[in-house]
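Recap slide: Peroxisomal trans-2-enoyl-CoA reductase, sequence and predicted structure.
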Amino acid sequence: MNILWAYYVTCKYHVVAYNSIFKKDLFKDEVVLVTGGGTGIGRCIAHEMASLGATVVIAARKLDQLTAVAEEIRKLGGKCDTMQINIRDAAKALELIENIVAKHGKLTCLVNNAGGQFMSPASMLSTKGFATVVDLNLNGTFNMCKAAFDGYMGEHGGSIVNIVAECRNGFPRMVHTGAARSGIINMTKTLAVEWGPFNGIRVNCVAPGTIVSSGMKNYPDNVVDMIAGNDWLSPTGRFGTESEIAASVVFLLSPAAAYINGVNLAVDGGSSLSKGFPEGQDLAFNPEGSLMPAYVGWPEGKDNVHNLKHVDAPQKINDLLNKYKKKKSKL
Ligand SMILES: CCC/C=C/C(=O)SCCNC(=O)CCNC(=O)[C@H](O)C(C)(C)COP(=O)([O-])OP(=O)([O-])OC[C@H]1O[C@@H](n2cnc3c(N)ncnc32)[C@H](O)[C@@H]1OP(=O)([O-])[O-]
Ligand SMILES: NC(=O)C1=CN([C@@H]2O[C@H](COP(=O)(O)OP(=O)(O)OC[C@H]3O[C@@H](n4cnc5c(N)ncnc54)[C@H](OP(=O)(O)O)[C@@H]3O)[C@@H](O)[C@H]2O)C=CC1
């Protein structure tokens, strides 16, 4: 009987603890900047943070996309502002942070999500192409971190999450982004050490594997076809969802991660562990895909981002998401 009672109390405590950490107003005093918040993963992060009470500022180059997402968020009762930025411009980055602080009083969280690349074997890549991608991802992320530090966080503290890409074993056909993202991961560790003492600034990375998102629209049809056909070739047997990236970002920004600093959290279904398999890796995995259902929205129910609008990916990639949503664990 005592054992049963102890079990009941333990379970109840966990439920209470969980609810008290991720309650609706968890981020009500926070002002969060999400770069690239007008599309895909950034849009999903913006929705999740707004649904937990944050004032969200989304910033990128294309104002029309930002405006549309801000309207979605406001319709759901969230607070969202839009500002234009090219993260490659360090002076404009500082201006952006100063504008946010002037308008909203502070900047407590920064999500460096803006970035990207194109596919090319290293042997075909021009020096300019390599430099462009490194400039966007590595220099752009540094510009934003430095601006946030100089414009607010150096004096008041804050939390930064840098979205990189899973590149543990190199990044064949994307040498530029692999090099840039590895640079960000190392930079993150340095900033965590150097900036931790300044009011406890935390800097962490999230490294997505292949995600069902708008980013896939940047690739030609034959590449999308190739990517879509390979979703089962990993331990989890599917690609990730935008919500699965957003959930890990929310966690790292939250007080629940207050003692996590300088890490790179791979959110890739374990795919990085199986990269570099010789031909024949298909023998190791299940062509039916995973039995594990995907996480497609936080919070669930009517506020779910994915009930609001389909993920803006090419049709073949969206079809995968619909398949994942239907999957039920047989366990
Ligand atoms: C697969 C799953 C894993 C990852 C998924 C994701 O991340 S999804 C997220 C995906 N989301 C994103 O990627 C979104 C963000 N991406 C972007 O904005 C662009 O892809 C960018 C990174 C190239 C920057 O663009 P920009 O306007 O600043 O640059 P620009 O156009 O002026 O080009 C400069 C130079 O780069 C070169 N070069 C460029 N393209 C190609 C190519 N296809 N081919 C070859 N080379 C190419 C070329 O040398 C060019 O100079 P040139 O020879 O013309 O004088
Ligand atoms: N989808 C995936 O499978 C993976 C994605 N990632 C990374 O996750 C992040 C989000 O990807 P996802 O949502 O899928 O792709 P998207 O292409 O939809 O997102 C990229 C975002 O970055 C913004 N952006 C690009 N260049 C700049 C710039 N110079 N200044 C400011 N904003 C810029 C774009 O907005 P705008 O054009 O208006 O400026 C866009 O909103 C990216 O860094 C991506 O590389 C990493 C691994 C896998």
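Residues 7-19 have pLDDT under 50 and may be disordered.
The pocket of NDP (ligand 2) is lined by residues 35-36, 38-42, 60-62, 65, 85-88, 113-116, 136, 140, 163, 165, 208, 210-211, 213-215, 218 (CB under 6 Å).
(End of recap.)
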